[in-house]
Write a structure and sequence with these properties.
The structure is a single chain. By secondary structure, the protein is mostly helical. It folds into 2 domains: 2-101, Large-conductance mechanosensitive channel, MscL, domain 1 (Non-ribosomal Peptide Synthetase Peptidyl Carrier Protein, Chain A); 103-133. 60% of the residues lie in helices and 9% in strands. The protein is built from 3 helices and 4 strands; from the N terminus they run H-H-E-E-H-E-E. It has helices at 2-9, 11-46, 65-100; strands at residues 56-58, 61-63, 105-107, 114-116. A two-stranded antiparallel ribbon has the order 1-2. It has a two-stranded antiparallel ribbon with strand order 3-4. Strand 1 (56-58) and strand 2 form a beta hairpin.
């Protein structure tokens, strides 16, 4: 029983559990955004908000391709919402943060080791370097 307790108390298991709970809550928010805001907007322009009644009958079999269309549209809308509201702003923020980092080292052209930016001689191969501004 102590091994199971140790397994549950490991940091990555707890982090994973928190991520699953937050992911489920975020999924509910995104699904609500799609169902309550985006789908009615599409139906205002397209006129048909729900495709589930569309079907093809061959013999005695009904092929409900409308449900598949609903699932594809829902997937595309959820993916678009996640991309434009989460991925794109995060990437922009990360790129701006990386651009602000000051470069303190540069490479030696002879031995390819890293030397301080203001160095005039490589500490590894003693090559004379021009000082960087």
């Amino acid at each position: 029983m102590s091994g199971f307790k140790k397994f549950l108390m490991r940091g990555n298991v707890i982090d994973l559990a928190v991520a699953v709970v937050i992911g489920a809550a975020f999924n509910a928010v995104v699904q609500s955004f799609v169902a309550d805001l985006l789908t009615p907007l599409i139906s205002a322009f397209g006129g048909l908000p729900d495709f589930s009644s569309l079907k093809v009958t061959i013999g005695r079999s009904n092929f409900m391709y409308g449900d598949f269309i609903n699932a594809v549209i829902s997937f595309l809308l959820v993916a678009g919402v996640i991309y434009f509201l989460i991925v794109k702003p995060y990437t922009h923020f990360k790129d701006r943060a990386e651009a602000r980092e000051e470069v303190t080292h540069r490479g030696c052209p002879e031995c390819l080791s890293e030397v301080p930016k203001a160095a005039t001689r490589c500490a590894h191969c003693t090559t004379e370097l021009t000082p960087a501004p």
